[in-house]
Amino acid sequence: MCPQGPTCCTSTMEENLASLSAQETEGLIREAGRSLQASFNSLHRSFDTYFTELHGRSERSLQEVLSSLGPLYSQNTRLFAELYTDLRQYYRGSALNLDENLSDFWSRLLERTFKASAPTDVTLSEDYFECVAKQQETLRPFGDIPRDMKTKVIRSFVTARSFVQGLLVSADVVKKVSQVSLAEECTKALMKLIYCPHCRGLASVKPCSNYCSNVMKGCLANQADLNPVWQELI
Q: How far is Cα 99 from Cα 101, in angstroms, rounded to an integer?
């Protein structure tokens, strides 16, 4: 692998040094990857904790505000709890349709409210209540609140989920890309770069930065192809 001429290395020593240079380079790449991977994992934990705390605080705040309604709220706490559970599951990656879930929430809330406010001396069938719920868009009993809430919640949760999943995907990509298996040509190039000077008695001489850069560009050519997609992800 090294240039012909006077040498301190036998063929076996060259092979051993070539293997060593490949192992050292793979280790450096993994180490660089671990640092970046740790950054993404730290960002994910930080954001996930922050968003989860906001979600919990929102649920507790709503409970405090609505508890003043007495039985009208206490008899329907499950409805609100299920909404927050659905939102939490969507954030965690569930294939829920937020638009449908929020529409269903307001329909059920209308039905419950209508039942509670209906005269006690009048018997109304379940079909009647179901019909009322389906006429929500026409009746608009809650005004613009359902539409405004739906728009804001969907925008917030789609963004939050995309961001937190992006951090996880980024860490996973870095992990996989850092596990480089160096080709034979790369191993030879690394040997010439790092250890061939040793075989000529020039152990203290370091290669210039351009030489190092060119060798690594050749060794990591496949990873370099990922750059445009990676930049788009970032």
A: 6
- Backbone φ/ψ region at 5: left (φ over 0), alpha (ψ -120 to 50), beta: left
CA 152 to each of CA 71, 100, 112, 145: distance values in angstroms, whole numbers, following the listed order: 29, 15, 24, 11
Displacement of CA 117 from its chain's centroid (Å): 45
Cα diameter, the chain: 110
CB 1 within 8 A of CB 191: yes
Residue 125 has phi, psi (to 5 degrees) of -80, 165
**Structural contact between residues 9 and 17, judged by C-beta atoms closer than 8 angstroms:** yes
Three-state SS at 120? coil
Helices 184-194 and 11-66, interaxial angle, to 10°?
Answer: 110
Q: What is the pLDDT of residues 20-75, one digit of tens each?
A: 989 999 998 889 889 899 999 999 999 999 999 999 999 999 999 988 888 878 88
